[in-house]
Structure formats: structure tokens, C-alpha cells
Design a protein that fits this description.
Elements: H1 7-24, H2 26-29, H3 41-60, H4 65-97
Length: 98
């Protein structure tokens, strides 16, 4: 897939939008915070939202885009494990409904 000049801005917008939802609807994210993390889930939800907004800002600036891409990759890899139990639960619910 060829690189499109708008791609970084689209990624930045998606990250920023997701980051904002961590503050607008934190209850959606709280249940997927791993129990092994210290402190309240809500604090981790807010930290994650700040991280997403921060990565969005760095990706949007051409001068920092490469660092932003690496920060985004690190962030995606860090939160990926939290989504595995949610995906498994959803798959199990689909099997039971079907």
C-alpha cells in the first residue's frame, strides 16, 4: 500500500479521538485495565488517554513524525495484551449466541 500524505493526519485524528474518549467515557475502558497493574483502573484509563493524545500530537508534526510512529508502536504493543481477554470474551459470547 503506497504512503499517502494524509495518512499521518488520519492516524493522529484517530489517536486523538480515542484519547479523548478515555476522558469522556472512561467506564468503557476501565474493565479492560489489567488487574495486575497497581492503583485504580480509572487512573490507568486516564494515563492511557493522555498517552494517545500525546502520540497523536507527535505524529501530526512532520518534524517529529518518525518518533511519533515509534511511540505509537510502543503504545500499541503495551496495550495489546489488555485487549486479548476482551476479544476472547466476545468470541465466546458469539459462539453461545450462534
Amino acid at each position: 500500500m503506497p504512503f499517502k500524505p494524509a495518512s499521518p493526519y488520519l492516524l493522529a485524528a484517530l489517536l486523538a479521538g480515542a484519547g479523548v474518549t478515555h476522558f469522556v467515557k472512561p467506564g468503557f475502558y476501565d474493565p479492560i485495565v489489567p488487574h495486575a497493574l497497581p492503583g485504580p483502573a480509572r487512573a490507568w484509563t486516564y494515563v492511557s488517554g493522555v498517552a494517545e493524545i500525546g502520540v497523536a500530537a507527535v505524529v501530526a508534526r512532520p518534524a517529529t513524525r518518525r518518533r511519533g510512529a515509534l511511540a505509537g508502536l510502543a503504545r500499541f504493543l503495551a496495550v495489546y495484551p489488555a485487549h486479548i481477554p476482551t476479544a476472547r470474551a466476545a468470541a465466546g459470547a458469539e459462539r453461545q449466541a450462534g
